[in-house]
Amino acid sequence: MSEKYTLLTRFAVTLPLLLVSLNGFAQTPMEKMRADQLVKEADFLLNGGDADAAIPYLDAYLERMKEVDDARVSAMKQTIRFKLTKIFLKDKRYDRGLGYVQDYVANRPAPEWHEAMKLLTVSLLEDRQFEACVTAATNALAGPPADVREALEKAAKEAAAEKDPSAYEFDEYGELIVKEDAEVEAVAETHPSGYSVEDLVLLNMTLGQAYTELGRVEESMEPFSYVVKYMQDPVRKGFAIMQVVNGLVEKKDFDALTSWIPELYRTDARFDIRVNMALINAASALFDAKEYDHALPLFRMILPRGELIAHQSARLRELQIEAGIIAPEVSDPQDQKLSSKDSLFGKSYGVEEETFVERGSNEVDKPIELIQLEQLIETIKTMPPYENEALYRNAYLYDEVKRPWEAVRFFDRVYQDAPDSELGKRSFYEVIRLLLNPLKEVAEAEPRALDYLSSQKEGLVPRQITYLLSGFYQQHRSPEKVKTLLPVIQSFVPEDSPIVRKYECELYYMQAVADLMMMEYAKAEASFRYVLETFPGSHQQENASYWHAATLLYLQQFEEALAEFQDYLEAYPEGDWCASAFFQSGTCYFGLENLEQAKALFTQVIERYPDSPVCPDAYNLRADILGSEGLLDEAISDYATAFVKASSGTQAKYSTFQMARVYEAESRYDEILRVVGNYLDAYGDEADIAEGIFWIGKTKVNQGRIDEAVQSYFDAIIEYGPDLEATGVDSMIDGLVHLSKTRLNDSQREALKADFIRAQQSTDSQTLRLRLRATVAQIDDSEVALGKALIEELPDFEQAAPPVLSAISDASFELKDYSRAAEILDVFLKKFEESEFMRPAYKLRGYDLFNKGEYDAALDLIADAQARYGTDYDVAWAQILKGRCLAALGRHDEAVQELTSVMNVPGWRGESYAEAVYRLGQTEEAAGSLLKAHGWYQRAYFQYKGYAGGTWAADGYLGSARCLSQLGYAEEARNTYRGMLFNPYVNHLPQCQVAKDALGPDQTREIGEMISSGVITNFTITLDVEEGK
Amino acid sequence: MKRITVLLSGILLAARCVTAAQPLNATLTRDDGRAWRVVLIGCDTNQLTYHLENDSTPKTLPLPQVQSLEIKLPQLDLRELNARLVSADYQGVVAELEPAVGDAAPYMVVPNNAVDAFALLTKAHLRSGEVKKALDAATYLQAVKDPELKAVAADTMAQAVLELGDLAAAKQQVERLSDPAAALYLTARIQRAEQQSKDAMQTVIELIASHPNDHNWMPQAEYLCAQLYMDLKMLDSAAEVARQVQVLYPASEFKVEAERLLEQINQLIEQSAPAE
Asked: What is the mean pLDDT of chain B?
């Protein structure tokens, strides 16, 4: 039997024997008591449960015997120290308890050395003396000092000798009973400290915690790893796992982490919430370190909260059944969830102190494991849904490694689960972002985003989503779709948050850019102004300042634009748009016809910003000015430099063909061929081949090399003609047709036609065939006939090139057949939006809508046509039709204004003026202003009789006579008819039948005879009346 | 016609007595514990046919009375064979296993020592593209009692039917699968076969999200994911997924398959790169 056993036994046996005389000593002062009486009194009090009262007696014994070295007394003193240790530490009175236990381990004998060291270690941790705890734990794990070890071994041998050596247990088969965990036992047997596995787990746990508290995370790994390996209690094991994982994360030992965790994952520890928190920690750290291949499997291991609860609840029921307890109802404290703003990552999920706190007396009947499990389940239930955070990060990981579909669906899961949480909102933003780019899944992204925006008006995310949509539309050159978002932006609830304001500013800026892209310059000007005024000093201040000035320039408000460009240059001397601002300032001066200043500014751009994208433009425009000054060599030099420095095909094209024009003026044909050839070689497919070949052909014509010119056109048409999108071919056809009509004789023209017809018959391409038919028709002036044929022939216009569609439009217009007007314009808008041949299609559709009485739609179409073609000669119809629509809508004044404005465009002189004047008469007549109407009608036949075959003049005569009749001027009306029949510009037209009917056959015949006899007359009807009389 | 054949194959097995191509020597243990050394002749769903080693008279024994069969097999190192399968040496595995356990197919209906090797052979057939053989083997394997192996057999049958191009039959098979991960994987495969790569992608992601630690299905699901990105012309993503399959599943045959796929993807990327 060990010495420990002997001493304790003696102490326990001796004290009760002396109890009989206790009453006699009870009143004896302590100092008068013998040492053995002190011990007896203390023992009495201890047995009575009054430990505090026993302490003075035990202390008195130690004091009285402190100088005594006798072995028996020493043993008694150690026993008393150990007893006092336990008394004080039980009540957490560390100031006293720690002193006794330290005395105990320092003195001999120390049969309870292992237990004392364990108590010392744990108490030091609890008393937060971490350094001392580390020392004590390390010493404990190193095992007892040699003398203590020797004494313990001796005692062990004595004890063994007292036992029956053959008392081993065997099972019914005669096999030695194997311990449940052989490995664990083996370790315990061989551990040099002499501690059991259970004690070793406790000491290592304590040491690990002390290291952690001291921030010595790396050193904590070994003791915690030991705990993970040998701890039976799953709660403590989970805590240790978490500590190891966190330690590895802090060490950034990712290799150890990734090899260690899957091993762990095969155990039930994966159902521990702290293990899952540690996994999130680890995965996030790996993600942050861009160790995606390591992070991904960890993210995948994280179990959702529901799964943990289910698992732990099942285990709880098992334990309850084992303990004979009826399963309690576990309420689901849904309403106790933590705020999602709480950190979901980091060590805040570390095990709580109370996990290890002793239970209250009301729970003494429950096994400790069950109590801890109940608490754990409660903890899990009250946690926020951490799996969403994990999913969110996992989604980010997928995004980072270019797995966008996975990213979208993972983000979507987070959003679907918690749409109103911050995480959910952010996830929705990510869903839309990824769907738009890179996935280009507009069909899903657009309706989802718009649906979201229809109800979400506050905060950052709706603005971010609008930004995504705007950016996507902008990128895909759909400014009109950007504009559809304006009401959404305007409906946002205003906020002062800087980031929200920044997004809002950006959104309005994008709106302004969209206006600019749509060439709605007035709207763009207002939009940029809004940005500048509403968001002063914003991140877009510089850009908005520049573009506001640019819109003023596009609106031809040169002076205002110039001032703003100068302001920009002053405010941003190193700004991104400086070169452009200088250049545009030059353009403003150009517009103001101050060519010297313009030239000076272009020169400034050339000298200060030689590498800027606008430098070639500056060269080009300076060359234009030089050319206008007659400095042709200097102009050529600038154009040539512009060509060399050109950063786009457009710049190179401009300089090339401007050079060609200068050379043409000087009849330097070889130079033309050289520069055009250089251009075509340098820009290949990007070049405007049609224009190039047109110039080559034209130059060869000028050189008298007609055959070569025709051949080059012909070859190019055949080569590029099958390509429906090669719209330059159509310009070549135009050029060749012109050439054939002006420079070829009949036989040459016939030969060319024959070549085209042959090519038409030999090609498999329907597109080329249709183009060649259009070419032949143009040579024959039979486009309308072709158009009429094709209306019948073509079931659809899929293979029809722009000239073909144009011929069909013209034919339809002449036939007043508007049945396919909408279809033709649709094809143009979808396939050839930039084509010049689209103009007749607009006209056809405009008249179509007018004739159907769809005046508002007609006005929209006219606005579109005018935005595209401005005041070009062949779109005067649009302005006239606009007036007619307004008149039809009863908007008389506006109609008059629009029709009058036709006469303000010099380019529309002639036929368009004639019609506009007649339409003004019609408008006034419809409004009941007969005098005014008469005035316009009279002007139509007086001033414009020579236009449009006299048709507007003829109608003017009739209108005038009609008004006069209604005003009661019957004779003047008849004279008007007479004048009409005398007028050689109109007297052959069918409208004259009205005049003939009014005058009667005699007068009509008489007039005819007078004309035949050479009488020339001109009736002038002057009304000496004023309106209203 | 093919579809009908495939669907009926399982049913026919129940009705006919299947005779092994080669007689197999085995130790037959009856339910009463008594054992005999026998030569196996055949087996159907009701009874085992055999004769004793020293007596060629055919005998039958109702299956409920068969406790187990210890079939005489050549020495097989299943761990090594499995490693060869993982390294994509499918033909090598088939070459070794087919003569050894191929004839044991009819006896899967009773407990025997060839089950694991036969399951490996079934998988090797499937991977090597011997789809018809895989289907036949899986049909036999489905008769085993082990529920996990039964599920594997069902999955294999569905995959084989799909590989044979009979999508309607494959859909029916999928409906019968008990393993949700397997059902998702095969649904995605069917969608891909129907040129619905985007839908297939969604299904695969559902699998990845719901069964991320299913080490049986995840390698092939992610491999399929790489193929789907290829279909969708997202070659960078396809390359990344293929690379991750290699890294994340080193102990799967899909590591080697992913290497091969990555080579194809890289070639496509090279071809699609603009010329210098």
From this structure: 90
Q: Identity (one letter) of the amino acid at A668?
A: R
Q: Is the pLDDT of residue A327 over 80?
A: no
Residue of A nearest to B247 (CA): A293
A402 chain-B contacts, CB cut-off 8 A = 236-237, 240
Q: Which residues make Cβ contacts (< 8 Å) with residue A849, sequence separation at least 6?
A: A855, A857, A858, A861
Collapsing DSSP to helix, strand or coil, A608 comes out as helix
Span A608-645, pLDDT tens digits = 999 999 999 999 999 999 999 999 999 999 999 999 99
Using the beta-carbon criterion (under 8 Å), do B213 and A301 form an inter-chain contact?
A: yes
* Cα gap A788→B97, rounded to integer Å: 78
What pLDDT, on the 0 to 100 scale, is given for residue A266?
66
DSSP state of A176: B
| Helix A442-455 / helix A460-475 crossing angle, nearest 10 deg | 140
Contact B17/A at CB under 8 A: no
**pLDDT tens for each residue of A427-440:** 999 999 999 999 99
Output DSSP code: residue A676: H
Contact between residue B68 and residue B108 where contact means Cβ atoms under 8 Å apart: no
DSSP state of B190: H
Closest in B201, B205, B240 to A402, CB measured: B240
Question: What is the residue-wise DSSP string for B81-99?
Answer: HHHHHHTT-HHHHHHHHHH
Contact yes or no for B212 and A301 at CB 8 A: yes
What is each CA distance from A565 to A510, A573, A580, A896, in whole angstroms?
Answer: 21, 11, 9, 39
The span from the CA of A978 to the CA of A402, in Å, is: 86
- CB-based contact (8 Å) between B250 and chain A? no
Q: Are A224 and A200 in contact (CB under 8 A)?
A: no
Q: How far apart are the first and last CA of chain A?
A: 147
Asked if the bond preceding A479 is cis, omega within 30° of 0, the reply is: no
> Positive or negative CA dihedral for A42, A47, A48, A50?
positive
Residue type for position A993: Q
Reported as a single tens digit per residue, the pLDDT across A866-898 is: 988 888 888 999 999 999 999 999 999 999 999
Count each helix (H run) and each strand (E run) in chain A, helices first: 52, 0
Q: What distance in Å separates residue A292's CA from the closest CA in chain B? A: 9
The Cβ of residue A761 has, within 10 Å, a number of other Cβ atoms equal to: 9
CB A837 within 8 A of CB A870: no
pLDDT of residue A871: 84
The pLDDT of residue A731: 77
Interface subset of A 287-346, CB within 8 angstroms of B = 293, 296-297, 300-301
Intra-chain end-to-end CA distance of chain B, in Å? 53
**Mean pLDDT for the stretch of residues B230-244:** 96
With 0.95 as the threshold, say if the pTM is over it.
no
B15: Cβ–Cβ under 8 A, 6 or more apart, which residues? B44, B45
Helix (H) or strand (E) holding B68: strand B66-71
Q: Of how many residues is chain A composed?
A: 1029
B240/chain A closest Cα distance in angstroms: 7
Q: Please give the pLDDT value at position A351.
A: 29
Assign B253 a pLDDT band (cuts: 50, 70, 90): very high
Cis preceding-peptide flag for A404 (omega within 30 of 0): no
> Rounded distance, CA A591 to CA A581, Å?
15
Q: DSSP string covering A326-347, please?
A: PPPP----GGGPPPTTS-SSSG
Distance CA A195, CA A190 (A): 10
**Nearest-Cα residue of chain B relative to residue A390:** B209
Nearest to B66 by CA among B128, B110, B24, B107: B110
**What's residue A27's pLDDT?**
53
HSE-CB of A595 using CA atoms within 13 angstroms: 9
Whole-angstrom distance, CA of residue A356 vs CA of residue A125: 13
